[in-house]
Design goal:
The chain contains four helices and ten strands. It is an alpha+beta fold.
Length: about 230
């Protein structure tokens, strides 16, 4: 009899312990804590620009210092490149110049000349077409699109990009999202081989949709003045 009572009491204590996390306000359960850590591992937030980006499982996050190569607007007097925010890559980021690594990269610029988002997108495409990439083909003319309740301008094109693995420039697909926020241009660039786009379209879309912009005190901090560049 006593044995049955003791076993019953133990079972009641275990049941109470299992639900006590949910019943105590302000207490985070171990499962919730682990979920929060997973989100933190999968999301990169730039405190300087108030921008967050999240990667799907199996993809790689890269901070600003891990991204190499030229920004989209590398030579312009109208937009002053401040830096990369972060990038999400299908393969390790160090392989981005070995092959065309399916990726989504966020960049930030100071808007020196007053532009609308549509003007920036058209300016970018015109600059690309006038550059050495004479084979550029516009597949998606600039048009508004909504991301997380904010209006962006989206444009896409086929071009060519150099890799170390192949001597000749390899055809690539580029999809760009333009948003002007507090006198800064936020540019999201999607890059992939045309043949890889259908394979990774769902993951690329989830990364793009994960981008959020929140006001950050650092946005109002004085920036180091950079030398303006002239348009090629």
């Amino acid at each position: 009899m006593w044995r049955l009572i003791v076993v019953g009491l133990i079972g009641m204590c275990a049941a109470t312990a299992s639900i006590s996390w949910a019943q105590q306000p302000g207490v985070i359960s171990p499962d919730d804590l682990e979920a929060a850590k997973a989100i933190e591992r999968n999301t990169y937030r730039s405190e300087a620009y108030g921008i967050s980006i999240t990667k799907p499982e199996g993809w790689f996050l890269a901070g600003a210092n891990e991204i190499t190569g030229e920004p989209a607007f590398s030579h312009t007097e109208h937009l002053n490149f401040l830096g990369y925010v972060a990038g999400v890559f299908r393969f390790p980021p160090e392989e981005q110049w070995v092959l065309i690594n399916p990726s989504v990269v966020a960049e930030v610029y100071d808007v020196v000349t007053p532009f609308t988002q549509e003007e920036v997108a058209n300016f970018y495409l015109k600059d690309i077409q006038a550059s050495v990439e004479s084979s550029v083909r516009i597949t998606m003319p600039p048009a508004p699109v909504s991301l997380n309740g904010k209006e962006w301008i989206r444009a896409g094109y086929f071009g060519r990009r150099a890799t170390h693995r192949e001597q000749e420039r390899t055809q690539s697909y580029q999809e760009c999202y333009f948003r002007i926020e507090q006198q800064r241009l936020i540019l999201i660039r999607v890059t992939a081989r045309p043949a890889d786009v259908p394979t990774y379209r769902a993951e690329l879309d989830s990364i793009i949709q994960s981008v959020t912009i929140e006001p950050s005190p650092a946005q109002h901090a004085p920036e180091k003045v950079k030398q303006p560049r002239t348009l090629l």
